Amino acid sequence: MSISKSPEEKLAELDRKMEQLKQRKKNLQVKVSQKERKQRTRNLIEIGAIFNKNFDVQTPNEAELIAVEFREKVKSFLKEKRKEIAANPPSDS
């Protein structure tokens, strides 16, 4: 025979479950944040390696000088390439 819980006991149980869910949500948010940070770090490393390879950059100051010099040229170039890709998407053969 099962004894039903009082309203106070039910509230206490719901409060406990809410706290557990809040903690699970917090843990998942931390995992997502860590994953995003790791991906950003990876991207920065890859971009830096490509930059270094193609321009023989030795210092961050040199990288900044090159970036500033080519910024508008690269933006214009990428804008045109993106238009071309959008107009002629690669076919999946």
Measured on Cα atoms, how large is the radius of gyration? 27 Å
Beta-strand residue percentage: under 5%
Number of domains: 2
| Number of distinct helices | 2
Task: Report the major sheet.
Answer: none
* String of helices and strands: HH
Flag low-confidence runs.
none
* Beginning-to-end CA distance, first to last residue: 67 Å
Protein model, in words:
Helices cover 83% and strands 0% of the residues. It is mostly helical and 93 residues long. It has two domains: 17-55; 57-86, no CATH class. The longest helix is centred in the middle third of the chain and has 49 residues, at 7-55. The radius of gyration is 27 Å and the shape is elongated.
Main attributes of the structure:
93 residues, mainly alpha, 2 domains, 2 helices
Question: What topology emerges from the helices and strands here?
Answer:
Blueprint (H helix, E strand, L loop, with lengths): L6 H49 L4 H28 L6
Q: How would you sum up this structure in a few lines?
A:
This protein is mainly α and 93 residues long. It has helices spanning 7-55, 60-87. The longest helix is centred in the middle third of the chain and has 49 residues, at 7-55.
